[in-house]
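2024-03-11 09:14:02 INFO receiving multi-entity request
2024-03-11 09:14:02 INFO entity count = three
2024-03-11 09:14:03 INFO echoing inputs for audit
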Amino acid sequence: MLPIILLSVFGIVLLFMGFLKSKVLLLPATLVFILAALATTFMDWGKTYLYFQNMLLTNNLAILFTTIVLLSAFMVVALSNSFIEDEQAQPAEYYALLLFSLVGAIMMISFENLIMLFVGVEILSVAMYVLAGSDKHSPRSNEAALKYFLMGAFATGIMLFGIALLYGATGTFVVSGIKSYVYTNAYGVSLLLYMGIILLLIGMLFKVSAAPFHFWTPDVYDGTPGLFTAFMSTVVKTAGFAALFRVLSVSFVGVYSFWWGTLAALTCLTLLIGNVTAVYQTSFKRMMAYSSISHAGYLLIGLTALGTQTKQALVFYSLAYSLATISAFGVLLVVSRQRQDTNGVNENFDAFNGLARQNPLLGFVMAVSMLSLAGIPLTAGFWGKFMIFTTAADKGIYWILVFAVLMSTVGIYYYFRVIIAMYFREGAAEPVKVAPFYRYVLIAATILTLVLGLAPGLLEGLV
Amino acid sequence: MLSDFGIILLFILAAFAFISLVLFGASFLRPDRPNVEKMSTYESGEEPVGNANVQFNIRFYVVALIFVLFDVELVFLFPWATVFGQKTLINETKGLWGWFSLAEMSIFVLTLALGLAYAWVKGYLSWVKPQQKIPTVDTKVPQSLYDQVNKKYQPKAKASQPASGTV
Amino acid sequence: MILSLLIFLPLIGALVVALLPDNQHIPFKWLTLGVAMAELLLSVVAYTQFDQQQAGYQLLEQADWITLPLGNLGVVSIDYLLGVDGISLPLVVLSSVILLIGVLSSWTIENRQKAYFSLYLLLSGTIMGCFVALDFFLFFLFFEFMLLPMYFLIGLWGGPRREYASIKFFLYTLLGSVLILLVMIGLYLSVMDPVSTAVMAGLATDAASVDQDLIRLVQAQLADMHISSSQIVHTFDLRYMADGGNYLPNAFLSGAGETTFWGIPARMIAFWAVFLGFAIKLPIVPLHTWLPDAHVEAPTPVSVVLAGVLLKIGGYGFIRIAWGLFPDGGAQYAQTLAGLGVLSIVYGGLNALAQNDLKKMIAYSSVSHMGFVLLGVASLTSEGINGAIYQMVSHGVLSAMLFLIVGVIYDRTHDRRIDSYRGLLQVMPHYAVLTAVAFFGSLGLPGFSGFVGELFTLMGGFQSLWLPGWLPSVAVSGIVLAAAYLLWSLQRMFFGPLWTRDGVESTLTDLNGRERLMLIPLGLLALLLGLLPNVLFNLSNATVAQWLEKFNV
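2024-03-11 09:21:47 INFO inference complete, emitting structure
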């Protein structure tokens, strides 16, 4: 569990590095720190360890999820060079908060004790509340922070209540302990357990923004500075699903028949709301918010059809989704900043008009990430969807599959609006300027998306 | 047979019952002769001015936050002290236990102190005094004339009164 | 090797074009033309190597591509498996011809040549891949990936409503392909690979030693549930999927049809899902509405490829996948399906009659003509299926020619309305002659290819044991309608005194050399196919005969 300790220490170190006159060192230092954490993550590869008196458990699955989270964070940080140029910003604090939130994410991924889940969620969330409001001069950012804080605090409260009820029912906080309680009392599970499961699920679904607990998502995503939106929609979501998977696949697998119907209904609702509402957005960022809701829906299919290959599907899908989302936000960041309209940064679809003509590279990166999110073959997103669908097909839940497939067709419509704007419309004459390092990160993410699309077997045997 | 929760419920009920009993009993027993002074908010005689719902200076919150942090640290130190002082443990480990727990607590306290240092350097602890604002008056008489008059009649013994541009 | 070349030559070409600098002096069109000619050469070589007497798949190529372990689902193994038979080879040759003509027709593209030819080559490669892929997954990848270059070709070089047309095209076809994807997953879970399963179950030492008898043995053991589920190797191989013996007992899509939804066997639902997927592509009324929009907005070469080749993938999918994998569905619903075909024939014909836009008229005539393909396939007779394949090839040639003809007049005046022209014969005699050839060929004049295709599909319809006689009788009216709208247009546009709506008579010049080079070979091809139908029938007959065996219950 070295990465947790390392990231905490690095976060403090970064805070104090903020006192240096020069801000140049911050970005490379943060990248190195994340890489160091990533390297130490793999020290436990192939083994299953319990840490801190059964508080945390690392196994290969946890390591893979941690890798996705750290990789996403790495890319987000790498795209953050605009902080350095901004006079008002306090990059050291942002980076430190990002590292602290990663600590929370890793706890959520590898918890063995439900208390650790709660602590992880809180560490992650508190850092995100601050980051959501980091643009102090924008009323939208302040609104986002407040909304996120109130809703998030409410959700964690519900979750904590659920955990308390679970303790009341089973007498333990340990995930595997709850499992053995469920198995030994297969015919007379306490009502408290069911209540606890529902409340815990509500709290977690809040965090991953699944309907009907999604209503904070669009406003928060919209108001939060773009970079942190990218972080929020990848790291928080991946960690949330890792936590959901752990608790559902270990603790509550014995009462699958109790929760799967509810989860299936919520899955369909999430898919419906996310996809249909995304169609009506004029702001690209809001569209991405609804798209993140819809992707929560696809990931929920994997959980609804819980089986042996669910974890592989979740890992692959999270990776594909994170790569595509970060490169999309990366393009949005430069474009919105350099093509401002009267209201400041322009985050609408029309900001992308004619982008492919002026910046073929940015256009291609965006197109690939949109295709991946839409699930077109030869991108990583297609295989993610394919695996999720296969999971559902194997479980025999065909109706949810048909619904998801219809919704993914709706998805094409709004993802392609960006492509239409970039390729078919006329736009500003001067190209958008992109820093070299920024460009390398985008290229790397795109290549990874395409490589995973051509050879999904690369991840074979890891899970 | 009562479950553990039942016992807790009993405790809660007993607490309610006890408090209501005491309060009711007291109200029956005590003499009740109110007057205006007794009914005021502060018996010391301080008159409350305005609503209690006023905005505090934001610095209070920062200080309060830091205070709470160290308060919690203190709460943590007490149980630690009992474990730290256990003679059997110290004897069994030939004194190593003491060093170990001392080191652990030092790390904990130091980390918090680091936070305090950060807040200090950032300037959250320095309570900046309000800057004195010199009022100005829109008049055709130039400022230099006032300064002349002020200088001329400046009291020699008490020079503490600052020169101002007021008429 | 030759089939791989057919796919990868254009794909590599696309990559090369995409990587070359965007420079006016680089002859992108010559490069593309070279690739297209090499493609034609390759397909002719494939044609000569093909043994026409033999029914099965030939020129097979196989390699492992993607292996993806999926827990207790076993291993997804997607093979790179290519091959052609008498059904796909005619379409491969047709595609290479039409794609070559398409390059010639693209000669006038000035705007963003690099992107255009790169996408065009990408499209060519995926089309070829679709026709030669024998692994369902590989087929699906090509089928879906094909949409992207097409989408950009319409969206970037199209007419004023190109955004609407291109996204409509994309969404319609994608909806179809996701239905196919669902069925593909279901099939995958229900079908075993007998060769690998034999090896896994210990019945054979290695894959090479598995022969037909052993496959029968494996299938028998599977039916008796002697093979444990961990030993079953699933497959996407279309050859194994087409063999009913390879279906797992009690599986989702097994032949016995235990799984039902609302009383309908899952197999039948799957059949309809696949049918819809390809019917959108063909297209069949009422799923055709994307076609007129796409054609009207698409530039001429894209229209040519769209009508000439892309629609055929729908028909090919019918024969290979919808009917090929679900013969029971095809047999059970033969009447409804043929009815849909006849509806397309009549509805498309009536719509064409009402159009004033020449391109839209031809688009609706495509709907009508592709209805014959469905009728022929649904008849489940040797004549019908052969006729359907023939009709696809013939329509590929003729519709390409028709769209080129529209392109010729549109290039000159930017006006496609039929009633904007009169007496074109006087200034454009050669154009008039070639238009007449295309129109007569299309309306089914004996001696041209259209006649043979329609005749055979109708004969199939009348001879079919599954269809009532009135269905093909109604379909005959489609030929009458075709004669009506084509001849009426011919009369209105070409005869009488010279007149144009906008007074642009001076711009009306006769065909130039490039246009002749495109139109005359196509006209000759239509004539050749009409006079020597055996060239095609010899190719497809053996395969079709074997294909029909599973309907002789």
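2024-03-11 09:21:48 INFO post-check: Residues 58-122 of chain B form one domain.
2024-03-11 09:21:48 INFO post-check: Chains B and C do not touch (no CB pair under 8 Å).
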